[in-house]
Task: structure prediction
Amino acid sequence: MNFPFHYEFGEEGLEVRLGPWTVRRVRYDDIEDIRIGYNLWNEHWTNIWPWRYLTLRRKTGWVRNFVINPADREAFAQLLRQRLGA
Result:
């Protein structure tokens, strides 16, 4: 079963995709922290599984918490940290 959003590592940032289209992108150089879970004040691009929340804290923007929910959030967070060079 396919759900609307999936997440990919692009050249310059994390991409939120809806089918073949990139609907949102967070640049790697704008991410300052990666946390398991979520904050109440956030921009979210998630599917239906709330127990998979992963929060990216951005350096810029009005709403700096960016929430996604990849299938394996721990593995995804580790891969993202590698992309960030952390």
Summary: Residues 5-84 form one domain.
